[in-house]
Write the C-alpha cells for this entry.
Amino acid sequence: MLLVLLLWLFVQPSTPTEKKDFVQAVGVLLAALAGLGGLYFTWQGQKLTRDNTQQQLEQARKSQERTQRLTERGQITERFTQAIDQLGKTDDKGNKLFEIRLGGIYALERIARESEEDHWPIMEVLTAYVRQHAPWPPEEDQEGEDVTIDKKSEEDSREATETTEVPAPPAPDIQAIMTVLRRRTPSHSHGEPEALDLRETNLSRANLREANLREARLKAANLRGASFWEADLSEARLRGRT
C-alpha cells in the first residue's frame, strides 16, 4: 500500500482516464511483484528440499559406511578368534597338529596385512607363541601336548651336539612364524610401537634372511646356525645369546 501511495503522489493523476490508467498499471505491477514473490518462494522451497535431500543422502552414506566398518570389524574379529584357536590344536594324544597351526599362523599374517589396527597385536601373539613353545634353554616340563616331542627333540639335539654339533632346526610352527616376521612390512618406529620380543627363545637354524630385526630383543636367545643374510640387526639386543 505504501508503494501505491508513493506512486500516486509521484504520478498525481487528475483526470478520470489518468486515474483509470493508474489503477490498471498498479494492478499489473502488483501482479508482477506477486509473480516474482511466488518464483522466489518456489526457488527457496526447491533449494530447501534439495539441501534436505543431500543431507539425508550424506547421512545414509555415513550410516552405510559405519555399518560396513562394523561388519568388516566383526569379520576380522571372527577370523582372529578362529586363527587363535588353530594355534592350540592338538590330536587326541596331545601332539601338535602342525598343519592346522600353520594355517592359523598364516591366517593371522593375512589379517595383519589387511588391518593396520591388528598388525601389532598379532605380532605380539606370534612372538609370545615362540617364547612359550620354543624357550631357551628348553623347559623340562613344557606343556603336556609337547612332552613327547620335546623329549625326543632334546635327545636328538643332545646327540647331534655331541657328534656333529649341528643344532636341530626349528619346529614347523616356529619357522612359520619366523617367515611371517621376515615378510612383514612395518617395523619398529615404522608402524610398530615396540621392538619384537624374542628373548630366551630357541631360534637355532631359523631362516631369518632379510628380516627387519631392528632393536629386536634377542637377549639369551639361541641363534646357532640361524640365517641372518641381509637381515637388519641394527641396535638389536643380543647380550647373553648363545
Q: What stands out?
A: The chain is about 60% helix and 0% strand. The radius of gyration is 39 Å. The mean pLDDT is 83. The beta strands are 187-188, 191-192.
